[in-house]
Design goal:
Residues 43-353 form the Enoyl reductase (ER) domain. The protein is of the alpha/beta class and 361 residues long. 31% of the residues lie in helices and 26% in strands. The protein has two domains: 3-140 and 325-354, Quinone Oxidoreductase, Chain A, domain 1; 154-297, 3-Layer(aba) Sandwich (Rossmann fold), CATH 3.40.50. The chain starts with a strand and ends in a 7-residue tail after the last strand.
């Protein structure tokens, strides 16, 4: 995708009708700076800016979609910060819902007007319009609205993988969920509760504690005021939990390990506080512990796995097992503000970006 003129908060000169007939343009948020610059501003929100980019026409096996709602996830922050590498410049975002506006030559099974969602690769959903492989697009059930779908696909499939594939939670298990009021954390708590597990969640304040309790946490620990390990042992009669779901990383690793029961599993699926320190194998030997760092993409790599995971998420949304809180919406042009609020932990539930009106029309 070739980056073109910078918008800087206003629209460039309108395209001529002749140019419009040859190509399509889409306003995007694009991370654009050199490798040297990214090292200097690797944590700077201002690294994202509006630009015009050529979208073009879909090729074999591709579709073009006009996004109606775009999910914001912490993995977007990781890419922007350089925690995960990406070629520069790049368009962030790994989740969106939209309407198909064009299909590649000879493609069957998709048509203009279809409503689809996708989560994962390819990166680039912070855009009004984009081209994606048809194989990653999932039909959106009519019962699920666009904002809800954009808020739940990546987080919901992550929760599905963590609860049903990485460690299969069952009735009688006890689980500890860090960041229990966050986007994935909220879904983990609701789903684990529905599976019959005893759910313990950690949060930073009373407001988030109330949300975590509403989402199915049997016990909530305010980690800014309470000792996490001590409270976990209290809630589990000194045994510890069968599994810890940890998206925080550096700040929570020690408490996570100490909260596990014998033969328990630590599932690290994020690092919002930074990379954890190297883990000495000897830390695991005392209780025969297991540690894993899964990626949702590795568990939805085939079309069958993708449809199964997305299908279970949408089914649970439809049945009411999963209640999706889209607590924060921002215009796509204000994606930097959304990132700032997410990093500062000023958000709870899910964040959705709504594409700005196309000012060229």
């Amino acid at each position: 995708m070739t980056c073109a003129s910078v918008l800087l908060g206003h629209s460039p000169s309108p395209l001529t009708s002749q140019t419009r007939s040859r190509s399509r343009r889409s306003t995007t948020v694009c991370c654009r700076c050199s490798q040297q610059e990214i090292m200097a501003v690797v944590k700077a929100i201002r690294v994202m800016r509006w630009e015009q980019v050529e979208v073009g026409e879909p090729k074999d096996g591709e579709i073009r979609i006009k996004n109606t709602a775009i999910g914001v996830n912490f993995i977007d922050v990781y890419f922007r910060q350089g925690v995960y590498p990406a070629p520069l410049p790049f368009v962030p975002g790994m989740e969106a819902v939209g309407v198909v506006t064009a299909v590649g030559p000879g493609l069957t099974g998709r048509k203009v007007g279809d409503v689809v969602g996708y989560a994962g690769n390819p990166m680039g959903s912070y855009a009004q319009e984009q081209i994606i492989p048809a194989s990653v697009a999932v039909p959106l059930p009519p019962s699920v609205d666009h904002k809800t779908a954009a808020a739940v696909m990546l987080k919901g499939m992550t929760a599905h993988v963590l609860l049903r594939r990485v460690f299969k939670v069952q009735s009688g298990h006890s689980v500890l969920v860090h960041a229990a009021a966050g986007g994935v954390g909220s879904l983990l708590c609701q789903w684990a509760n529905a599976l019959g597990a005893t759910v313990i969640g950690t949060v930073s304040n009373e407001e988030k504690a109330a949300q975590a309790a509403e989402d199915g946490c049997h016990h909530v620990i305010i980690y800014t005021k309470e000792d996490v390990v001590k409270k976990v042992k209290e809630f589990t009669d000194g045994k510890g939990v069968h599994v810890v779901y940890d998206s925080v990383g550096k700040d929570t690793y020690k408490a996570s390990v100490e909260s596990l029961a014998s033969r328990g599993m630590l599932v690290c699926y994020g690092q919002s506080s930074g990379r954890p320190d190297p883990i000495p194998v000897s830390d695991l030997a005392t209780k025969s512990l297991l540690v894993t760092r899964p990626s949702m993409l590795h568990y939805t790599g085939t079309r069958e796995e993708l449809l199964q995971s997305a299908g279970e998420v949408f089914a649970n949304v439809g049945s009411g097992v999963l209640r999706i809180r889209v607590n924060h919406t921002y215009p796509l042009s204000e994606a930097a503000r959304a990132h700032a609020d997410l990093q500062a932990r000023r958000t709870s539930g899910s964040i959705v970006l709504i594409p700005d009106d196309d000012k060229e029309d």
